[in-house]
Amino acid sequence: MKKIRYEITINAKPEKVWDAVVNDKKYREWTTPFQEGSYFEGGWNRGDKIRFLALNEKGEKDGMVSEIAESRKPYFISIRHIGVVLGGKDDTTSEEAKKWSPAYENYTFTAEGAMTRFSVDVDTDESLFEFFVDVWPKALEKLKQIAERIE
Predict the structure, then answer these.
(1) Phi, psi (5° rounding) for residue 108?
(2) Whose CA is closest to 69, among 28, 17, 107?
(3) Backbone torsion region of residue 85, taken as left when φ is above 0, otherwise alpha when ψ lies between -120 and 50, otherwise beta
(4) Degrees, nearest 5: CA angle 49-98-3
(5) Which tens digit of pLDDT belongs to each residue from 27-77?
(6) CATH code for residues 2-148
(7) Statement: residue 151 has pLDDT above 80
């Protein structure tokens, strides 16, 4: 398992950046670099089950099954990925699911005056490392644009 870290400074308070991360409509927007049509089912509170999904070519749900290990609004979220979703079914017991779980994805929102330093720490399987190195910076730029929009 490899660990990678990304940071971006966003011209918005942590509360606004938090909302951009967890709000359903905004989440669907900032996560498009990972996969068009990405969305989540579940909650962002400690202990909540959450599934990160997109539809495959057959129209079935594929993605990750996770749980919120920690949630301290508006400063920190820890996501523990515990399995995969294939064809709409959660899989936490197969060898494929076990080879990379648990993996953590942690979001830290640090107030710096009127700005927020948003940090992402991700555990990733070797096979996805290059993909994440390419895609995370694009997703963070989208997140920045969304959080800085005047609504």
Answers:
(1) -120, 130
(2) 107
(3) beta
(4) 80
(5) 999 999 999 999 999 999 999 999 999 999 999 999 999 999 999 999 999
(6) 3.30.530.20
(7) no
